[in-house]
User: Fold these one by one.
Assistant:
Number 1:
Amino acid sequence: MNITINQVLQAYIDPLTASEYAALERSLLAEGCRDALVLWNDVLIDGHNRYAICRQHGIDFKTIQNTSFTSLDDVMLWMIDNHLARRSVSDFQRGVLALRKKEIVAARSPAPVSAQDAPDGENAPKPPMSTREEVAKAARLSSNQISQIEKIQKAASPELVQAVRSGTISINAAATVASLPPEEQVAAVAGGKKLLRQAAKEIREQRAATRTPREPKVHVSQDTPETGNEPWAENAAQAPSETERLRGEIASLKQKVAQLQAENVELNQRIATLIDAS
């Protein structure tokens, strides 16, 4: 039987850990391959690990055809939904799969219709999976977690992505560490779980220290007559011009940039020290 492995489809499957692969191998050797492999024509779409083990040990297996697909996109969506329903899939991988589903659905959906072109001036319905909330619901995650996974996909080094895939670092911490330059991400991953957590903690502390506090709002009672002698009126009269205010903001931002650069140098030194000590 000629069975084809599609690399794009196989990439949807997180590789098993060594212990998980060994357990599956023992089960197949003891009980045989009870579940049939699923094919689309000659393309394997479910059962990649079982197929590899069966071929290695000469274990017999059965196949079934799924003839409901008309395109490779149909197969991809079926595989994504199939994996999203499994408990063994990690939160990070569910988020990645849901975002991939969003891309496929968006590519298959017709171009959006503007309110002017829609009948009766009504807004055309939005395509499915078009919002972060819908993606989060499909992945059984929060919208914030989906946002963090998007940051990881855009900015994380391959080493950091592998760390979050393996559970060495949480999604939240990985999204924070992904803000570092790639070489610093690699150094943090090389330092192990403890250094990754420390790096994420220090980045959060830096952000909190440089966050501008909100100014309290001035409340004026409607029952108090305005005489022009109130303290708030005097403050308003002495308020700086728009140009002076902008200049002050620019000076403040320059000071913050200098502070962040200094703290970044200190963070790099700490990371290097932790790596040497590990």
Number 2:
Amino acid sequence: MLAASEFTGENMNSVNKTLYIPLYGKAFVSQKGLFLEDKKAKEIWEAEGFSLRGKAKSKWLAYYTGIRSVVFDEWLKQQRVVTPDAVVIHIGCGLDSRIIRVGAENQRWYDVDFSAVIEERKRYYTETDSYKMIAGDVRDSSWLTEIKENKTAIVVMEGVSMYLTIEEMQGLTRNLCAHFERLALLVDTYTSFAAKMSKRRNPINEVGVIEVYGIEDPRIYQSESLLYVQEHTMIPQKYINELQGFERFIFAKLYAGSFSKKLYRLLEYKKQ
């Protein structure tokens, strides 16, 4: 088991602190040699892991966050092949090393998060001519002024939409569409049922988050410019198969069965 220091993220509010949950998950599965290799997550966690407790340190949740991350990585790699000239925007980047995992260090890339998160992130990542970190609140459009490119963008939002109201998400997608001529977006969402359940049974409660949001119809984020394309499989069978015996059985029931599909969705949108 990975050790955790007593680092408490004093400058973080409760939503910001949720970034330590996927960080731990990616470090945990990387140490076990499952799903993805994330040396940076291990490095950061071993340096000063946030003191997670309870469900937030569940191995089942770690497996889930590890698989979710690699699914996002795979989609991003595919989009880069289709639109190699696109800029990449990772909204709600936290301390994630996606740019390293997908091998895009030389592609124009923007990692976006709240100022306290970016301040923490800069302790571990260095900006280059092609890689920038933007401190901002995605609920307004001011952060987009730091991105000079306006042709094509690939946008990933992993573990973010559930902290935004429907109106805030609609505002964000409108702002993105106003800035870019073409756009591909992958976002994971809660269902309304998951949002209700989260008030009592979600690991994010361990870091003080009590208000989250869900949707039922993916088309609610559509606009005249942005169209819903398809739903993706959140937990592909090939990754479940990396687990063994009892763990594989339990994980498949908890996170990949019919019950989980009532909670989580992975949605793709495009502006052509």
